[in-house]
Amino acid sequence: PAPRTEFQDNVVHYNWHWFRRWGTGESGNNATHFLDLARWALDVVYPERTVSAGGRLFYEGDDWEWYDSQNMSFEFPNRKFITWEGHSERDIKSTEYMGYWTGCMVHGLEGAMFLNPTDGATLFDKDGKVVKQWDWQEDLSEQKVDGSDTQNPSRHLLLQHMDNFITCVREHNVNTNAPAAVGHASTLMTELANMAQITGETIRTDPRTGRLAKGSAGANLWAREYEKGWEMA
Prior knowledge:
This protein is an alpha+beta fold. The chain is built from four helices and eight strands. The chain is 27% helix and 19% strand.
């Protein structure tokens, strides 16, 4: 394919996350949302092992620094694991899954559930038969919240989260609906996957703390050099 020249001189407001100095690529851009759903569904927090495969496999000749194709897997205690696969910018039908461009499928012993990007869900039995479906677009079609577009449930939920966050800031209340610790656990997974991809090694972490296990690869990527006075633990 021809190189994408638009990224060469357009960083703000979206394309910054394709550059390593500022962003995390599609891993931290898209995967975070669905890894968060998967963690919630499996009731897991930090993985024990993280591996990743992929690279710049589709586009060549532009100035992207992160990967356009990536497959990351995480192993958790009690025989649970999560896998995420991304194909950035491949605008072709073969990348769709169950009719959507992205989503989260949870597999269990007795069935599975697909969580789609429009806040709907489909429950399957172990034979693949649809047991039940939820469609939040239909549920919200008669509602209007602060002028929001009710055909976009994610936007509706975003308004609620922003309202809650701003209220907590004004009230000096740390009990947000979306706790920072929960966001950290999901975001950390994408960072661990990028560390695994960069090093070509398995990243091992303590599932109790989420920090690198002794002797694990990636120690040199765990932190960056900070301006004096702005250091982080």
